[in-house]
Amino acid sequence: MEQSKKHQAFAVLEDGSKVAIDAQSLVIEMVGGEAVEIDLDVAPYPGAGLAVATPPYADRDQRSPLGWPRMVVRPGAANQLELCIEAATEKAED
C-alpha cells in the first residue's frame, strides 16, 4: 500500500530555528478555549490545500446543542490571514 504524502510541519523557536514535527495533524488550542486541527495529509486531488477543522476530529462527539462553531477568516495583510472561531449562537440545521 502506498504511504500518503504529508505536509511538513515545524515548530519555530524564539531564536528563529525550526524543529521538525512528525505528526498526522496539529491541534492548536486558542486562548478563548476553542481549538482547530490542521490535517497534514495531502489530499489526493490536484490543488488541495490545508484542511482545517473545528472542533478537532477527536472532539466531534461533543457537539453543542447549538451546532458547530463557525470559522471566520479575515485578511490581515497581503500575505496573512486571521482565523477566528465563533461559537454557534442559534440552533443549526443539519
Secondary structure layout plus pairing:
Layout: E1 9-12, E2 18-21, E3 25-29, E4 35-39, E5 51-53, E6 70-77, E7 80-86
Description:
With 94 residues, this protein is mainly β. The protein has one domain (9-86). It is built from no helices and seven strands. It has strands at residues 9-12, 18-21, 25-29, 35-39, 51-53, 70-77, 80-86. The strands form three sheets. The chain has a three-stranded antiparallel β-sheet with strand order 3-4-5, with no helix packed on it. Strands 1-2 form a two-stranded antiparallel ribbon. It has a two-stranded antiparallel ribbon with strand order 6-7.
Radius of gyration: 16 Å
Can you count the helices?
0
- The H-and-E topology, N to C, reads as EEEEEEE
Helix fraction?
Answer: under 10%
Spatially, the strands of the biggest sheet line up as 3-4-5
Q: Which whole number gives the mean pLDDT?
A: 84
Q: Low-confidence parts lasting 5 or more residues at pLDDT below 50?
A: none
N-to-C span: 36 Å
Number of beta strands = 7
**Strand pairing plus helix content: what structural class?**
mainly beta
Q: What kind of sheet is the major sheet?
A: 3 strands, antiparallel
Instruction: List the domain count as a whole number.
Output: 1
Strand content bin: 35-45%
Brief sketch in words of this structure:
The chain is mainly β and 94 residues long. The chain is 0% helix and 38% strand.
